[in-house]
Amino acid sequence: MPVHPQEVADEEGSEIDPLSDPEERRVLFAALDSFRQYRQAAHYNITHLRRQSFYSLPLAHMELLASEPFSLPKTLDAVDAAIDANADIAETVLALGLDMYGIDPGSTEWYGAATSQDMDKVRSTIRQLYRDWAAEGAHEREACCGPILAGLNRAFEDISPAKRSHVSVLVPGAGLGRLAFEICNAGYAMEGNEISYHQLLVSNWILNYTSGPRS
């Protein structure tokens, strides 16, 4: 189910190139820059500041926190490894996004465009991957997607699964595309709409460039 978010619609429903509109360009550049900054910002805000606080403690307190059951230095190392795994995804999403929108990877005109709100969005979008696409989020997905799929199947129970492709389903606010994927996988023709570039960039990666778990 390919995603093609290169164009957006204006107020009249006409498709426009986001790079031709100053406001869309600003929002897109801010989203791209937030993925670029993710690794450094996450390490600084989550582990670097905590390490600074840890090493400023009296020696007796440091020894206490470094030993079991706290093992704070080991815990921070594990968090750093998790940040790097997330950052690898963020940088892959960034590279694919630059290519998708025809932006020269060597260009720096969009550097520094991300606001603190954009950095919050990139963190929440990466966290959302856990819920929407990780095996650990299956229970929550079933609670959300299951009733919708069941409702669709009831509404079109007179149509055989082989002919479901004649039924078009719109998913507004498609997010990272999991519900849209499940509807498409059930045989229906599907179109997903999403306004957030953070969500569009990540769903482009997950739907168009991955082929299975851990790919």
From TrEMBL:
Keywords noted in UniProt: Methyltransferase, S-adenosyl-L-methionine, Transferase
Name the record gives this protein: N2227-domain-containing protein
Domain of life, per lineage: Eukaryota
Organism: Aureobasidium melanogenum
Acidic residues biased stretches: 8-20
GO MF term list: S-adenosylmethionine-dependent methyltransferase activity
InterPro entries given in the database record: CARME (IPR012901)
Region (Disordered): 1-20
Classification via Pfam families: CARME (PF07942)
One GO biological process term: methylation
PANTHER family referenced in this protein's UniProt entry, alphabetically: CARNOSINE N-METHYLTRANSFERASE (PTHR12303:SF6)
Lineage: Eukaryota, Fungi, Dikarya, Ascomycota, Pezizomycotina
UniProt signal peptide: none
